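Structure, all four chains, one model.
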Amino acid sequence: MIFASDNWSGASERVVAALAEAARKGGPAYGADDFTKAVEKRFAELFEHEVTVFLVASGTFANLLSLSAYARPGGIVLAHREAHINVDETGGTEFMTGGSKIQALDAEQGKILPEALAAALARTSHGYHSGQLTTLSLTQLTELGAAYTIDEVAALAGMAKRAGLAVHMDGSRFANAVAALDVSPAAMTWRAGVDVLSFGGTKNGCLAAEAVVFFDPRQARDAGYVRQRAGQGFSKNWFIAAQLEAYLKDGHWLSLARHANAMGSRLATALRGSKRARLAFEPAANEIFAIMESGLEEKLSKAGAAFYPWDPECLPVAERPGAGEIMVRLLTSWQTTAAEVERFAELVG
Amino acid sequence: MIFASDNWSGASERVVAALAEAARKGGPAYGADDFTKAVEKRFAELFEHEVTVFLVASGTFANLLSLSAYARPGGIVLAHREAHINVDETGGTEFMTGGSKIQALDAEQGKILPEALAAALARTSHGYHSGQLTTLSLTQLTELGAAYTIDEVAALAGMAKRAGLAVHMDGSRFANAVAALDVSPAAMTWRAGVDVLSFGGTKNGCLAAEAVVFFDPRQARDAGYVRQRAGQGFSKNWFIAAQLEAYLKDGHWLSLARHANAMGSRLATALRGSKRARLAFEPAANEIFAIMESGLEEKLSKAGAAFYPWDPECLPVAERPGAGEIMVRLLTSWQTTAAEVERFAELVG
Amino acid sequence: MIFASDNWSGASERVVAALAEAARKGGPAYGADDFTKAVEKRFAELFEHEVTVFLVASGTFANLLSLSAYARPGGIVLAHREAHINVDETGGTEFMTGGSKIQALDAEQGKILPEALAAALARTSHGYHSGQLTTLSLTQLTELGAAYTIDEVAALAGMAKRAGLAVHMDGSRFANAVAALDVSPAAMTWRAGVDVLSFGGTKNGCLAAEAVVFFDPRQARDAGYVRQRAGQGFSKNWFIAAQLEAYLKDGHWLSLARHANAMGSRLATALRGSKRARLAFEPAANEIFAIMESGLEEKLSKAGAAFYPWDPECLPVAERPGAGEIMVRLLTSWQTTAAEVERFAELVG
Amino acid sequence: MIFASDNWSGASERVVAALAEAARKGGPAYGADDFTKAVEKRFAELFEHEVTVFLVASGTFANLLSLSAYARPGGIVLAHREAHINVDETGGTEFMTGGSKIQALDAEQGKILPEALAAALARTSHGYHSGQLTTLSLTQLTELGAAYTIDEVAALAGMAKRAGLAVHMDGSRFANAVAALDVSPAAMTWRAGVDVLSFGGTKNGCLAAEAVVFFDPRQARDAGYVRQRAGQGFSKNWFIAAQLEAYLKDGHWLSLARHANAMGSRLATALRGSKRARLAFEPAANEIFAIMESGLEEKLSKAGAAFYPWDPECLPVAERPGAGEIMVRLLTSWQTTAAEVERFAELVG
């Protein structure tokens, strides 16, 4: 019963097999290999658009590389308060983009509110002192389990771009979002105004494989240098390319995500039916937030369930856990089994 | 006939098998997994010393993480002019350590000369203007194929430490050096005064696996933050740990390196016997530098040999290629076959 | 009627005379001159403590130099949301300290609340991801015109230091605060737990003169390098030293501040008596915040009054301007005349 | 007999008077004052070109602000080994430009040789690893007392610009160079291909006043943010503007420089006639390098002469001091008196 995070999962057999195959022979270093070329072509097909792709080994660095492309002195990145870039990356954005500040916007279940964005864009600056807005960063799935609709992405991206900002999508769980909304990758990204995407593979069946996808090659001008000087321009670049090649081939990535989402859906159903626990939010895919009786969480842990408590400040005051209750986060993955979910369901009654 | 670089090699079967095994199940994220714990223990045994180990995915980042531990405002890192950190890492040291300057020292076949180090340490500074010396970085094997003897490491490290500098060893080819000198890892590092080691695995049988090994835990105080904010604190940390576990087990790493060195030795022999080519330096392990007739290199390429030209400025003026000659670098790896070397030997006549 | 900012003022005659005197002759560069030595001694006397002093030319840089001394990778600085370092320094802290993040704390009239600090210190971190708390920064006077009492400073500083944080005081208006509270500089700083002070001179009679005062020389170890590489280690360091020498001599700085505060007090009295305007906060010294009828502000501007509108978000919801009202900030300085205040008082009726 | 540096001088009476006048009244903050507007206009007239000017308080920061405008990830600045940015600014370029590396070029008396520049531009890079060339920085006067002719500047700048680099001139002693060559500021800069100039005032009669002059406003796009976040966007910006206004008015700056140069010329004449000392280089303006008998320098110091020893590595081997000789640097300034020079001449016999 591993619901701690989808990053506790292993890697899918197909991905591992592809990696083993690539590892048998090796190839020219630093991305001159065939796997890299193949996967770059595949990304262009997947997104139905010319793309410039940089393979990297972590979602954190995918975000940093994306944001670096738009960083300017005194730059400000707009994001949700609980955005991974704001609270889980050890100040990576501040350091790696050369001093950008992250300005947190109000959100609902991690989805930035248009009014909050409008207010941030409208705020009168006082000359150079207040810095310059450079980028809007949206997380899809959000950190709180919701999915922006395509219209929502387009609306926010449109506002941002009219104000001269670039639009970044942190797609650490891009696959889960695409599967949940049943839309095309193109619709979710460049057609809706996204400039650069952190395309995640690690959480959904890869070992360590992410791609930064720029939809305008000119914006990728310096990204190769940024990647190299951070030590993520790998000599054996094929170790990422081979993973992603298998991941993307024949829609494998979406099959994996659909499974994770289906398990999330079952988990949500179980929580809706529980008397000792309830959903904190309606989930869109594989991230489930629940409020449960305090004793229950201990019982679950003892029974072998792994999951994390969550700070309820992300909930409206009226919906927060009462006395004797706690909030937890539960994540399903491509590796979660129906048996795990059923066992959990029994335990939460 | 791949002599372009040892990083063109694939990965050893044992390493891949261990990775596949780890990938089947996954595990707790960010280094809380069993593979990570096991490999940390293994490093302590290997070095016969308490160590604090940080697993990372590239040699460049291993160097950056190492150097970051000693970085200070206005800091200066002493290194050989052709050190990887100086010419191959896209200004990584300058950026990732928060503005350190690299000061190049005179060297012989990449081995920093004691007199050059003494001069750098003795140079009278003018207050804050000239910055502060923080670290001496030695590369073992050097970028030009030589190996520092233990006494040489100890002498340079001693001078540096008496002047208050930390000592870093870039051991991208540490295995080849240990195999070539037939010494213990402990003797080569902390016993000789090395504070932190970039321990390479990628070039010698891994896919992407390096370790930063601190011999004094206090010096590692901030390294976890530095690694995380650069996006090299991997959720599936076991993907590196499993590689290194197999790499270190039963002396696999040294077997691989011995093979690479043996192939290098044969290649050197072939060049010594050639009428159209000669050794530029006496090689210590698997990096061979040759000077050859200009036509020969084309013939080799056509026959399928991969290798790179090299800038002869690293040679004393008297030993540089004459008219109609060029300098090239040839690298053997754990994957190089005797047949490849023999074929090459025939071609250089 | 200049109430726009105390930094619109000129410089006091004594300060200018001292500067002119110093300029006649010049002297050894980079702080080896007599003025610098004299002013360093004076600071030690003023604070009744050994101090290490770095003269700089702006309050922004004084803050950056102070915070740099405690910066660490993944570092987090706790401050009030409207702190100058957070909203008026163009991301200086993020850039110049090598990537620190500023985490905003709840406050009342700019005074950080103990509960907010306690919550920030207690928040369970998740390993390296969330970064490390390094420094608490207090602004005295606050940006909203309040003054921390000595007990308040001591309480917050005590909490911070018990948690391992350093304590910085942004004393851009330190003189106004000391004058308002009628306490000793020592009591306000190191005796209350402050580690480093940005001691302001520019707003209160100097041209461009601030001092970073460390109360523990060991913490100043790298500050000289930080100052020099930012181009604030001035060759003619005496141009700042001479200003501050005159500023500190015979209590000149406090006389100037007392005058500014007295003018602030008169302005507050006028606003208390007005029917068309009211105080937004009770001011402690020379920063006055008022809420006034919308038309009035135009009338004042036409009559030659200079002042800035202020974002009322800093007020509790219930106290914010109603329909037809706006919030403004008014600052008095050492140069403000009673006639200016009286004229203003007449206009606000 | 102060020949230690021109930055040991005081400030000219006119400059001090203008500053005192400005200080009497003060004015709108952050460059909205009349002095700033006036001086901006004056710079445009002086350079016979549209300019975007940023006033700063030190030559080091003028260089940093200039170079920041062209900095890119993995960026490389080409400069002479003894360039101030390379050896006297505490790694400022490396830090403040976000990680640029300085690559030293061969030079003659500090003047970069065309062949050295050509070699640096031609060097084949290996992908992203070697970084990207961004800027050529020329120092005029050089650090070793020579002046580039206009043709020399144009030749180097032309080569750099054809290769896509920007051209920076460190004009810390721009006035001395203009006076020595008797050319127009326009001819020396934008007409010869210079993109941005660090225009120095401090060494030649100001207290702390430098200007960064961009000749293409588009290149200055982010400079305001860079200046502000480094704490060199001064609230009382008029304190620099007033100095420079007086400095530029009626050719005062050139009168001061001509005097300094004339004193330098006399000093050179004295050295040419000496039996115990000789010129190390032919000086162009106010920087004189001499080689003297070892005892003589002590005698001079005892007699009250201030000057610094200099590392003779900047000389060709054949011209270096012999046994019993040392090399020294002597600087004259606007404040140097003929009496000082004469007394020195007597002492060197």
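The mean pLDDT of chain C is 97.
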